[in-house]
Amino acid sequence: MRTAIDEVGEWLRERLPGLAEEHGVPGVAVAVDAGGRVVEAAAEVLSTATGVEATVDSVFQIGSVTKALTATLVMQLVADGRVELDAPVAGYLPGFREATVRQLLCHTAGFEGDVFTDTGKGDDCLERYVELLADVPQIFEPGRMFSYNNAGYSVLGRIVEVMRGMPFDRCMRDHLFTPLGMTHAASDPYEAILHRAAVGHLGGRPAPVWAMARSNAPAGSMLAMTARDLLAFARAHLADEGLRAMRESQVTLPDIGWGTAWGLGWALHDLPGGPVFGHDGNTIGQSAALRIDPGRDVSVAILINGGDRRPLMKEILGRVIGSPAEPVPDPAQRLDVRRCAGVYLSSTSRTTVSGDGQGRLWLEQVPLGPVAEVGDEPYRTELLGWRGDSLLPAEPGRGPVAFLGDDGQGRARYLHTGRADVRVAGRTEA
């Protein structure tokens, strides 16, 4: 007798090649776990240059899904009484700026988070990286709001190193990969090459480099694995009551389509079928998604190496877990051009929001630094009314943006797209 998980497996095997072709995805691997039973499928190729077939044993980079593994290593130390969530980070890394371990875990530490400085390939790279953070700007007071912070997770990785007395990648292997039986998990390119390894694609072509800097490894610059191994990690979070605290809400998110709240390493989603937690990840031409439905004991991992990832992931997640409703513009929502117009800056983008003579708002974003180097392109789109201070880009595939805070003159202080970009003083662009 066929079960629901059997039907999902059959659907994946039949539908995945077509999905990949429809959305220009070079290669994809998917695994679904229902009550401990796993079905998996893969389609297309690991690299368009070599034509090597993608299989269920292929490893893909998981990007920022790595953050959930890094957070788990920290929570193991918390369980052992060696780290306290509300203790200052300086207690573990002397001289570090004002922030607590909890604030790093839930992205509320408030300092500039997109710092991708390469401090080398040696075992001292995290130590050297953390020292550089003394000079990055503080965007808001710690604990005040959510702003996605890659750098904060490298700091957490350094705390793990210090408390364990060994390099971060060894901590990952000794305390997660080996105990959980994750046999196809690679911490770096040297390990990945021992497996069938996917190559990222940009503009339909293989990316010129495979991974980003080792100094960002705890945030998601290198880790690669099979979809099946990623589900072994998810299964641990369903089975271990000691890890349940990681999916408890720590901070409510702005209305930007990223979920409802953030826990200690997990994004939290309120879906029609009940609460779901998970994480997404992107590296150089590779993307990943992990979703876990504790109420139904179901998890799904999706790994791809380029192309239009969003619709592919949406169809699979919608079939297996469920998806939030697509946001629809609300013509009744009036746009406050004066509040929103201005120039907003971060280390990775410069965004200009301006009004026109018809009372419409336009957003123009120019990537800066490393994100521009790996293929992000400038774009311009109209902003449409949606929910209060959250507006919808008219361009398909772009998520909501929120205008938050006050600069003291009735204008928004931050443009929030997951990260809080700061208004440039004196620039209104109205």
UniProtKB/TrEMBL annotation:
<dbReference type="InterPro" id="IPR001466">
    <property type="entry name" value="Beta-lactam-related"/>
</dbReference>
<feature type="domain" description="Beta-lactamase-related">
    <location>
        <begin position="17"/>
        <end position="309"/>
    </location>
</feature>
<dbReference type="Pfam" id="PF00144">
    <property type="entry name" value="Beta-lactamase"/>
</dbReference>
<dbReference type="GO" id="GO:0016787">
    <property type="term" value="F:hydrolase activity"/>
</dbReference>
<protein>
    <submittedName>
        <fullName>Serine hydrolase domain-containing protein</fullName>
    </submittedName>
</protein>
<dbReference type="InterPro" id="IPR050491">
    <property type="entry name" value="AmpC-like"/>
</dbReference>
<keyword id="KW-0378">Hydrolase</keyword>
<dbReference type="InterPro" id="IPR012338">
    <property type="entry name" value="Beta-lactam/transpept-like"/>
</dbReference>
